[in-house]
Amino acid sequence: MFKVGDRVVAIRSFDGNIKKGYAGKVVETRSCQICVEYDKYVSGHSCNGAGKYGHCWWADKKHFKLEEREFKVGDRVQFKSWEELKTERKEDEIGGLDVLDGRKGHYFNRRMKHLCGTFATIRSISKQFVELEDFTSMSNTDWGYSIDMIKLADEQPEKPEQAKKPKKIKQKISNSTISIDERKILISISKTYIARDIDGRLFAYQERPVIDIGGKQFYSSQPYKEILQRELFNFIKFTNSPLRIEDLIKEE
What we know:
Number of strands: 18
Number of helices: 3
Strand order of the largest sheet: 4-3-2-1-5
Largest sheet: 5 strands, antiparallel
Order of helices and strands: EEEEEEHEEEEEEHEEEEEEH
Number of domains: 3
Shape: elongated
């Protein structure tokens, strides 16, 4: 019913020092009991070092329910650990974690594993899906995300700019690289981003695309268009996609 890491709330007062509504994190479990590290001091113990001293207390599971915490724009969140995700999803033959039958959510590619335990901020929410920003991860973050991949952060780590995260260096594409025909195509398609899938197909997107299932192609929920002249734009690779079309047109 409860596992280590779950946020729970007391549904009744008990043992004299735990009041109804007290909330905390499960740090240890037994067959019928859990040890909770409460958000406030409860004159308890540290659960043998598993939690903060004075904040921990063992009690029967019947005294608790999972804390209902809804996500909202601006929340600082943490990606669940790989072990947590494996208990809530099913591992496929290529090592990724797919959603269970009947549930909705983005595929968690094994190449996303570096995100586990890192932090981000919610930029927007649409039903089961979220857009994130201010990542603490220094690696690739161009993926699709759903709320079952994340949890509210118990701590508030520094945002990248506070932690002096290196700024991304804008890739310079010289005029000699882009032909007149390529420039005309970019102007005519009226899209914002361009990206090449690993199979060589080239697409233009209205919104910034992210890498989809399997890590071999890009996708976006907004309108996109395939560029059939795939022999052009040789400088656009899967590894440097997506690129902003306006930057390519204006590049000096």
